[in-house]
């Protein structure tokens, strides 16, 4: 058979199958269901992102007003003590598709010049019940619901024809390559499902200003994912079994890949990577800060100077209470807890790294995580935000320490130079 | 009765021969065994760890040396919530909310260190618990076993024979239902065992029995759905595909959609937002560190008049301690007003979400399960309230010591020199005013009362489906 006639026969087969599909009312129903669910998922995501942005805009205003009020009513270092600063992590342009950690990890904090370890783990996360049930975002829809749609749609392709008694006839008349017929059928149906799923995503991405490479990557990921499940369904559909056995096997496979492997993996990873308990971090920090009141002032200042040698010449504390000594032992409290705190951060990083490897054998999790990476709503993004809070807190200290140790008067004008928290630059 | 048994027995024989049923049952049993073992071990480990930390925090507080009482107000205290035994079956909100709170003067902190924040992130289903196995995969097994109940007879052509031999449709359906129900009871045995173990470990028997009951009801709803679909649709494949679709919609899609709908329908300000509103209220209360704050002028005048002295130095009590007490009282009243409003908003939102249980039995059974296991929002809120009560008690206790055991003139000069500072230390025996913190889960009655509307929803679902079954049974055709 020449190449031209082969391609012509592919075309005619494609046209025939497409016409066949177009008359299949259940295929249309599924196409509409997928479209509807995808619209639902992206619009719920867009709503949530919109709400989070509004919250941040409101918080930025309220936080500034509150700090102004404090700086007016309090004087000098007491004003510093009482001044909180808002830090936040705005949702990215693609966050609507995968809300990820933003449901149960805090993405907004108010911090002040005191020891940071006691503050950074405070959590203003959303409603616990809502976080537990989980939202209907595109990532969840694509990773967990879409394969089930494919399974229901594709499992009976051959077995259905077999029951109807057309199987042998179809195989016999499909000139030469009988596998092609099933590939074509499965491929067409999967393409329809894919297009129905991806269309709302593209529209929503356009609305929210997602960068083209991000959107393309997401579409490609989804394509690969749909292809994977289509192949799995096609392979199992070729099995000489009744449709119900095939369906049950496919659902069992879904449970295995989407639930059992991740659940077992989470437990295994959590066991393999031990982490200090949060309670130990905060209690260590508290003991260190409170011990500061009773320790000889010189030893607090010595511990402080280890990290900040530039203030070594200014550490004489003469009175029972001096602000520089007070803020110094807050700093020392953080220093004492630092090893534990770093181990905690490293542990989370390491667990996430291993989870990334494990996801390679659990495609639903792999897709969900990949979309979260694109949306910057993954664990790394959450840890990066925490790092930005730490940096900001450090810059507050950098700002105040010269004033504190040189014993400068804090004129109201001095507060105008206060460092500002910059969330990640927009669009990055 | 005998015919009912015959029909049910025939179904059982079919299942025992079917590899499909066997495979499904094995998968379910494996999942249950694994999750029960893992969850129980984890919860026991956490219970031990939290009890250990609680004891350590209490010991650290009591072991503090002599010092100014207000220093102890800021030294603060930690409380930890230990899980209920039934939490081994349904950890509920436990992984999402933190279970430790740092308590200190002038502030209400949030719980910290929720396990979900530190665990490897492998998606929502990776938090598989025995409760989730029942909620998500129990129905699948019921579908697998139940989808062919009538459709198989119809496909094999035996339905006509059965009906022709005089077995009325309703009797046939009842017999099939009995068979499926017996499987559901069998499926609930592992749950019953977990519940029995929890009762041994101290959970109320009533709550444990109700927990088993609510899952029996839930699985029966799915059984009824399977039976109905099997009776209504012609082909077995169609029944299975329809039920699988129904399962996807009711257990995966609708609950998640309900969450999104809820945050639209009942939006709730976060803690930071309410805090910022509250702070402007707090500023009006006066500065508890400043005895000359006009906010405390009346307190001061009344005290002076009561004791017939002119100067605060001549009072038999320390005005600074009294001001601290009055200030903490006012502050806490305001904090509690806002905290109550926040909890009320959370409860409202939870109720809106729970009302979606009318649309999907999964939300209803999940809510009821958390309430009965003592791991729901109400328990979380009570933990916050009890932690707050403890915070207020020890802070005010220390403020009382401040007022009664320190002289005003020493206190006011304590920052002037080391000797003056030493005179403002009180003996460490006063730290014993700290109460022990032990969180007691709700009694069985109030757990049951909280799951009332969920029972109603599930009963309504069940009654409706049984009614539909009776109707279909009367019209069953081959």
Fraction in beta strands of chain A: under 5%
Shape of chain B: elongated
Give the helix proportion of chain A (percent range): over 70%
Beta percentage of chain B is: under 5%
Shape of chain A: elongated
Main features:
heterodimer; A: 428 residues; 16 helices; 2% strand; B: 478 residues; mainly alpha; three-stranded antiparallel beta sheet
How would you sum up this structure, described in words?
The complex is a heterodimer of chains A (428) and B (478). Chain A is mostly helical and 428 residues long. Helices cover 72% and strands 2% of the residues of chain A. Chain A has a two-stranded antiparallel ribbon with strand order 1-2. In chain A, helix 6 (138-154) runs antiparallel to helix 15, helix 10 runs antiparallel to helix 15 and helix 11 (243-272) runs antiparallel to helix 14 (323-358). The relative contact order of chain A is 0.13. The mean pLDDT of chain A is 86. Chain B has 478 residues and is mostly helical. Chain B is 70% helix and 2% strand. Chain B is built from 20 helices and three strands. The two termini of chain B are 23 Å apart. The model of chain B has no long low-confidence stretch (mean pLDDT 88). Chains A and B meet through helix 2, strand 2, helix 5, helix 6 and helix 7 of A and helix 2, helix 3, helix 4, helix 5 and helix 11 of B.
SSE map:
The complex is a heterodimer of chains A (428) and B (478).
Chain A: H1 3-23, H2 25-73, H3 76-82, E1 85-88, E2 108-111, H4 117-120, H5 128-133, H6 138-154, H7 157-164, H8 167-173, H9 178-208, H10 212-237, H11 243-272, H12 278-294, H13 297-307, H14 323-358, H15 363-375, H16 379-405
Antiparallel strand pairs in A: 1-2
Helix pairs in contact in A: 1-9, 2-3, 2-6, 2-9, 6-9, 6-10, 6-11, 6-15, 9-10, 10-11, 10-15, 11-14, 12-14, 13-14, 14-16
Chain B: H1 2-17, H2 19-62, H3 69-75, E1 77-80, E2 100-104, E3 107-108, H4 115-118, H5 130-146, H6 151-156, H7 158-164, H8 169-187, H9 189-200, H10 205-232, H11 236-265, H12 271-283, H13 297-307, H14 319-354, H15 361-373, H16 377-405, H17 408-412, H18 418-423, H19 444-450, H20 452-474
Antiparallel strand pairs in B: 1-2, 2-3
Helix pairs in contact in B: 1-8, 2-5, 3-16, 5-8, 5-10, 5-11, 5-15, 8-10, 8-20, 9-10, 10-11, 10-15, 10-19, 10-20, 11-14, 12-14, 14-16, 15-19, 15-20
């Amino acid at each position: 058979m020449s190449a031209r006639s082969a391609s012509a026969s592919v075309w005619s087969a494609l046209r025939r199958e497409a016409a066949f599909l177009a008359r299949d009312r259940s295929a249309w129903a599924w196409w509409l269901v997928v479209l509807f669910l995808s619209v639902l998922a992206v619009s719920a995501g867009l709503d949530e992102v919109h709400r989070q942005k509004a919250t941040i805009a409101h918080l930025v205003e309220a936080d500034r007003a509150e700090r102004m009020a404090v700086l007016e009513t309090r004087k000098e270092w007491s004003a510093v003590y009482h001044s909180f600063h808002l830090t936040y992590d705005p949702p990215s342009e693609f966050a609507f598709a995968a809300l990820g950690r933003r449901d149960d990890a805090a993405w907004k904090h108010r911090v002040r010049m005191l020891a940071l370890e006691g503050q950074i783990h405070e959590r203003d996360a959303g409603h616990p019940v809502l976080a537990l049930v989980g939202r209907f975002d595109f990532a969840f829809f694509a990773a967990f619901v879409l394969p089930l749609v494919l399974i229901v749609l594709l499992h009976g392709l051959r077995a259905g024809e077999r029951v109807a008694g057309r199987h042998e006839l179809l195989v016999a008349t499909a000139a030469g390559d009988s596998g092609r017929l099933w590939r074509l059928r499965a491929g067409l149906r999967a393409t329809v499902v894919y297009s129905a799923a991806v269309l709302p995503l593209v529209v929503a991405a356009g609305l929210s200003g997602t960068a083209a490479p991000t959107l393309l990557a997401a579409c490609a990921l989804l394509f690969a994912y749909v292809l994977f499940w289509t192949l799995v369904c096609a392979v199992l559909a070729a099995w000489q079994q009744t449709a119900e056995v095939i369906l049950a096997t496919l659902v069992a496979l879904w449970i295995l890949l989407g639930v059992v492997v991740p659940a077992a993996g989470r437990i295994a990873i959590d066991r393999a990577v031990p982490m200090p308990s949060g309670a130990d971090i905060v209690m260590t920090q508290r003991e260190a800060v409170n011990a500061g009141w009773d320790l000889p002032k010189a030893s607090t200042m010595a511990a402080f100077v280890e990290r900040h040698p530039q203030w070594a010449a200014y550490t004489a504390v003469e009175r029972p209470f001096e602000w520089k000594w007070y803020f110094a032992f807050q700093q020392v409290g953080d220093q004492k807890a630092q090893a534990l705190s770093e181990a905690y951060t490293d542990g989370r990083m390491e667990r996430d790294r291993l989870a990334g490897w494990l996801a390679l054998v659990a495609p639903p999790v792999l897709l969900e995580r990949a979309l979260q990476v694109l949306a910057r709503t993954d664990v790394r993004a959450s840890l990066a935000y925490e790092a930005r809070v730490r940096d900001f807190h450090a810059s507050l200290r950098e700002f105040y320490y010269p004033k504190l140790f040189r014993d400068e008067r804090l004129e109201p004008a001095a507060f105008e130079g206060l460092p500002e928290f910059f969330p990640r630059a927009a669009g990055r | 009765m005998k015919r009912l048994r015959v029909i049910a027995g025939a179904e059982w024989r079919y299942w025992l021969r079917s590899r499909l049923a066997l495979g499904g049952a094995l998968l379910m049993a494996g999942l249950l065994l694994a999750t029960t073992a893992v969850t129980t071990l984890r919860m026991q480990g956490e219970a031990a760890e939290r009890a250990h930390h609680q004891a350590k925090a209490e010991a650290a507080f009591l072991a503090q040396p002599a010092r100014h009482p207000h220093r102890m107000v800021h030294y603060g205290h930690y409380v930890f919530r230990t899980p209920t035994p039934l939490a081994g079956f349904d950890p509920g909100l436990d992984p999402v909310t933190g279970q430790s709170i740092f308590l200190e003067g002038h502030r209400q902190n949030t719980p910290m260190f929720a396990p979900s924040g530190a665990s490897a992130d492998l998606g929502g289903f990776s938090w598989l618990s025995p409760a989730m196995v029942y909620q998500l995969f129990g129905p699948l097994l019921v579908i697998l076993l139940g989808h062919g109940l009538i459709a198989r007879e119809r496909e094999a052509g035996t339905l006509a024979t059965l009906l022709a031999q005089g077995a009325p449709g309703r009797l046939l359906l009842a017999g099939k239902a009995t068979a499926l129900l017996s499987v559901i009871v069998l499926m609930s045995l592992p749950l019953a065992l977990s519940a029995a173990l929890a009762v041994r470990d101290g959970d109320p028997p009533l709550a444990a029995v109700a927990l088993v009951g609510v899952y029996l009801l839930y699985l029966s709803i799915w059984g009824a759905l399977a039976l109905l679909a099997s009776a209504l649709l012609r082909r077995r494949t169609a029944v299975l595909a329809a039920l699988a679709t129904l399962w996807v919609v009711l257990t995966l899609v609708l609950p998640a959609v309900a969450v999104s709908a809820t945050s639209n329908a009942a939006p709730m300000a976060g803690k930071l937002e309410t805090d910022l509103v509250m702070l402007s209220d707090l500023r009006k209360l006066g500065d508890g560190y400043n005895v000359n704050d006009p906010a405390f002028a009346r307190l001061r005048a009344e005290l002076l008049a009561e004791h017939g002295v002119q100067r605060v130095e001549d009072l038999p009590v320390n005005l600074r301690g009294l001001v601290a007490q009055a200030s903490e009282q006012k502050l806490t009243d305001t904090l509690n007003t806002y905290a109550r409003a926040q909890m009320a908003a959370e409860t409202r939102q939870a109720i809106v979400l729970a009302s979606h249980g009318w649309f999907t039995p999964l939300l209803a059974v999940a809510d009821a399960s958390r309430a009965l296991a003592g791991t729901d929002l109400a328990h979380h809120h009570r933990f916050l309230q009890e932690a707050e009560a403890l915070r207020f008690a020890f802070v005010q206790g220390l403020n009382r010591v401040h007022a009664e055991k320190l002289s005003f003139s020493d206190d006011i000069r304590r920052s002037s020199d080391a000797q003056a500072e030493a005179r403002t230390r009180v003996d460490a025996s006063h730290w014993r005013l700290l109460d022990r913190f032990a969180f007691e889960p709700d009694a069985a009655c109030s757990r049951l009362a909280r799951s009332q509307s969920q029972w109603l929803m599930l009963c309504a679902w069940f009654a409706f489906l049984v009614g539909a079954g009776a109707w279909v049974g009367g019209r069953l055709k081959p």
